[in-house]
Amino acid sequence: MPKAKKSTRTMSDEHKAALAAGRQSGRAVRSYLDALEEFRPKRGRKRTPDSIRKRLDTVTDAIPTAAPLERLSLIQERIDLTAELETLEGAGPDLDALEADFVTHAAAYSDRKGISYAAWRELGVTPAVLKKAGITR
């Protein structure tokens, strides 16, 4: 008995476009949520670039005279403070651009995945952004 011929399946252009749109909306939503998570306000007093620079100067001055174990801690603190200062001074993502992209894609993404207004809110998306995106209660 001869083997059956295996047919090759091809995707239609509409299907390919739908997959690309889904990837694009997923990417927009993920990028915005990642940025929200990274820059979520933390408890306690907010640190300013000036307060970080002041502490950085104090730490840098204390390093030469500190005992070896304390010097190790101070060096690590200096590294951490430098990284925090760079983040505060604009090394972070452009949240406005990410928000605009999110607003464009969020409603379709929400409908497709069955995500409610309450779920978005619990994750930290503000009501104003959800309103702009067309996601209602």
Short overview:
The protein is 71% helix and 0% strand.
Task: Please explain how this structure is put together.
With 137 residues, the protein is mostly helical. It has 2 domains: 69 residues; 48 residues. The protein contains 6 helices and no strands. The longest helix is centred in the N-terminal third of the chain and has 26 residues.
Task: Give keywords.
6 helices; mainly alpha; 2 domains; 137 residues
Order of helices and strands: HHHHHH
What oligomeric arrangement do these chains adopt?
single chain
- Approximate helicity band: over 70%
Label the structural class: mainly alpha
Care to count the β-strands? 0
Could you list the spans in which at least 5 consecutive residues all have pLDDT below 50? none
Mean pLDDT: 88
Q: What overall geometry do the principal axes of the alpha carbons give?
A: elongated
Biggest sheet character:
none
Q: Number of domains in the coordinates?
A: 2
| Rg (CA only) | 25 Å
Strand fraction: under 5%
Task: Measure the end-to-end span.
Answer: 62 Å
Helix segment tally: 6
Which helices and strands, and how do they pair?
Elements: H1 13-38, H2 49-62, H3 68-91, H4 95-113, H5 117-123, H6 127-133
